[in-house]
Amino acid sequence: MPARFSNPPKVAFLASRADNAQDALQRLQARYPHVAPSEADVFVVLGGDGFLLETLHELSGDRRPIYGMNQGTVGFLLNTYREEALVERLMGAVHVSLHPLIMTAETYQGGQFTAEAINEVSLLRETRQAAHLKISVDGVVRMQELICDGVILATPAGSTAYNLSAHGPIVPMRARLLALTPISAFRPRRWRGALLPDTVEVSFEVLQPVKRPVSAVADSTEVRDVRKVTVRADFDTSYTLLFDPDHQLEERIFQEQFDY
What we know:
By secondary structure, the protein is α+β, with helices and mostly antiparallel strands. It contains five helices and 17 strands.
């Protein structure tokens, strides 16, 4: 579905601190009319995947679309950088809506923290000792004890990131699934994870939180020394990313399953 805004759209440029992103920012601002972020119809983001995720988190609750151009390393969530015909690209772009995960983490000291994750929530051991985790889905214990370096719960958009590096499955955008993937599971050794409906609530209980401390990370937000972590999809919040028709996110994720 093509993006809809005024023609020409009111554009605000945002760039990471990397030299190449800052150089691109200056060239684009010299070439195209632009406005302050508060007045924009659309944000054009220059950087890598990390900066795009950082921008989405900073714009939490803002439903205006984001069109990213890669000035980073991988750029999976961004379009190819090109200075020509930017307005035409924006007008013809296809939108993708992303719903984040909401992580609620309780520490063994009694603190409680909430954070959003667009890619994944991961639990990671903090020391040389393996984590011992109990996993429940919608209140039903599904894994009494997972001994591991950690575990990941990934969205479809995040399934090709950390989840894929941990040998988790790639999830197509329209599958309405979450990927639950262990990191270096020791027991049960042969467990490779699970695919879960995106409507469930997943709870992780750290069985020995003092002796075997665990941190919880929602994208780049880390909470250390957790005792319990619950994760669910937030369907009341959505972020809109724009993609060139020949560079759609859904197709790129699908194609990843056939790359070797």
